[in-house]
From TrEMBL:
Family indicated by similarity: Belongs to the nucleoside triphosphate pyrophosphohydrolase family.
Organismal lineage: Bacteria, Pseudomonadati, Pseudomonadota, Alphaproteobacteria, Hyphomicrobiales
Keyword set, alphabetical order: Hydrolase
Bias (Basic and acidic residues): 127-136
PANTHER family, sorted: NUCLEOSIDE TRIPHOSPHATE PYROPHOSPHOHYDROLASE
Region described as Disordered: spans on this chain: 127-150
Enzyme Commission code(s) on record: 3.6.1.8
Protein name per UniProt: Nucleoside triphosphate pyrophosphohydrolase
Residue stretches making up the NTP pyrophosphohydrolase MazG-like domain: 30-103
Organism: Rhodopseudomonas rhenobacensis
Length: 274
């Protein structure tokens, strides 16, 4: 198998990886749900390459993201649901339909606001058509939260769900009340740890994270940005530990937790002095 610029080669590679008996054991055991986190991760890596203005890396990351599309399409094809060709046809149909000012016989010059208005109208039509194709569901009471997009990152969606609920008064008035909720959730995690219930531990951890997002919202901090900042700080300080140990001819595996903790505090002190 040789590399190629033709998408057909990538489809052949994925088919080979998913062939029982001769394919890759890891690839063979994947399904939509298990692949989904990698799909999200690759999308973030595309965005990160753009933020760094690294076009070589962007090329590679776009390839990784394309692989995710091919992977999902292959799983669907094996289940007899749809194929990669169906995915391509669906998006080409959608783009042609959403750009009548470019592709229709009556195409003409429109302003950006005209285009945006047409785009919203056509998207609404498509949404109604998709709803009509789905099996009829029992009537449900309209929800205030229905407009919160389900595909957002979890931190962002938590913030939006809370903002929506706050518009009808379902909210705390004081950040300290949110702190009390955080302590309550931490206590519930401790109880779940004592019980050794892994499912409950995970659920209570989610509750704690939701409460932390709520605190961020109340103090005017974006949780995603705040966590990115903390990630960068952790990387900085951990690298300080690695450098300090390397200067002694050692690595982290050779140091005790107490030693690394002392170096962490030294890194914090150095930052505060800087």
């Amino acid at each position: 198998m040789t590399p190629s610029r033709d998408i057909a080669r990538l489809l052949e590679i994925m088919a080979a990886l998913r062939t029982p008996g001769s394919g890759c054991p890891w690839d063979l055991e994947q399904d939509f749900a298990s692949i989904a986190p990698y799909t999200i991760e690759e999308a973030y890596e595309v965005a990160e390459a753009i933020a760094r203005h690294d076009l070589d890396d962007l090329r590679d990351e776009l390839g990784d993201l394309l692989l995710q599309v091919v992977f999902h399409a292959r799983v669907a094809q094996e289940q007899g649901v749809f194929s990669f060709g169906d995915v391509v046809e669906a998006i080409t149909r959608k783009m042609i339909r959403r750009h009548p000012h470019v592709f229709a016989d009556s195409a003409g010059r429109l302003t950006p606001s005209d285009v945006e208005g047409a785009w919203d109208r056509i998207k609404a039509e498509e949404k109604a058509e998709r709803a009509a194709r789905r099996p009829e569901q029992p009537a449900q009471t309209p929800s205030l939260l229905s407009d919160v997009k389900p595909g957002q990152p979890a931190l962002t969606r938590a913030m939006e769900l809370q903002r929506k609920a706050s518009t009808v008064g379902f909210d705390w008035n004081d950040p300290r009340a949110v702190l009390a909720k955080i302590r309550e959730e931490a206590d519930e995690i401790e109880a779940a740890l004592d019980a050794g219930n892994s499912a409950e531990i995970a659920a209570e951890t989610g509750d704690l994270m939701f409460a932390l997002v709520n605190l961020a919202r109340h103090v005017g901090a974006d949780p995603e940005s705040a966590l990115r900042g903390t990630n960068a700080k952790f990387e900085r300080r951990f690298h300080f530990i690695e450098q300090a140990l390397a200067a002694q001819g050692r690595g982290c595996a050779d140091a005790s937790l107490a030693e690394m903790d002392a170096l962490w505090n030294a890194a914090k002190a150095a930052e505060s002095q800087g």
